[in-house]
Each structure stands twice: as structure tokens, then as C-alpha cells.
User: Fold this.
Amino acid sequence: MIRFANQFVPIDPRAWNANMDVSINVALGRGTDTERMMMLRQIGEMQKEAMATMGAVNPLTDMQKLSNTLKAMTELAGFKDTSQFWSDPSQFQAPPQDDKPDINEQLIQVQIQQIQADIQKKAAELQLGREKMFMEDDRKRDELEAELYVKAEELQAKYGTQLNVEKIRSDMAINREVMKAQADLIKDAAREE
Assistant:
């Protein structure tokens, strides 16, 4: 009996053709199954080390070769169907990435938005406070100016003395412009900070 194309075929040695090519694979000298398993385990460890050192794709070995080593170990252990234990790396397809953002990133974004909203609110409150202050200042100046006219008229009626109200008004306008310029400088300095 000989094995021919993975099938055992009976053969009569008398009808042997001398022109036939024969290759003989003798199971002697390969070591015991335990020794072969230990050697395959060492080869697998060396392949893993090479891949860890030089990356998954390197000139010494790759995932397909490591898969072959693991399959040979499985066959040596007595399991003929290695696909029960090992997949073919060439058939592997990575699962699609989830586009869901991380919950921590979402929390950080919400906190950033809250902080920005608080900053805008505080800036609006400061601006409103400045505007109120300037409006109050203008109202007080108008009251003082009206009071000045009333006092000037009272003095003129009481003592018959003519006051130069226009001079007083122009001095107040100059003071008002100086104060506005100072306020604008303070605003500009606050914005630059």
C-alpha cells in the first residue's frame, strides 16, 4: 500500500515502472511529539518577540507565519481541524469604528460651554454696569447744570448781578469731555487685559 494524492492505493511492486519519480517521507528522526511541540512553542515565542520588537510587518515574520506555527501546534496536539481554534489572518477585517464621542469628552465640552456662557454673562453685566454708571453721571451733570441756571437766575434777580452762564457751561462741557476721555481710556485698558 502506498499513499498517492492523500489516498492509500494498493500497488504490486512487480509492475513498478522504473521511470516513476518517488519521494519518501520517513517519520523517523523528527523527534517525539513532545519534542516537536516544544520546538514549535519556541518558534512561536521567537516570532512573537520579533513582531513585538520590529512591528507586525517585518522582514523576519508576520501574522500569517505565526498563525501557521499555532496551527501546526494544534495539529500536533491531535486536532485536525485547526479552524476551530485559529482564524486565517488574511481573512480578518477590523470592525468599523464607533463615531460616538467619549462620555468624558462630552462632559468636558459641556463644561467649556458653561464657562464660556458665564464669561459672556459677566462681560454683559459689567458692560451694563458701566452704561448705568455713565447714564447716572450724565443725569447728575444735567441736574447740576439745571441747578446752575436756577441759581444764576436767582442771583441776578436778587442782586441784579449778571453771571456769565455761558462761560460756566463751557467749563463744565470741557470737564465732561475730559472725564469721558478718561473713562474711554479705562475701558480700553480693561479690554486689553
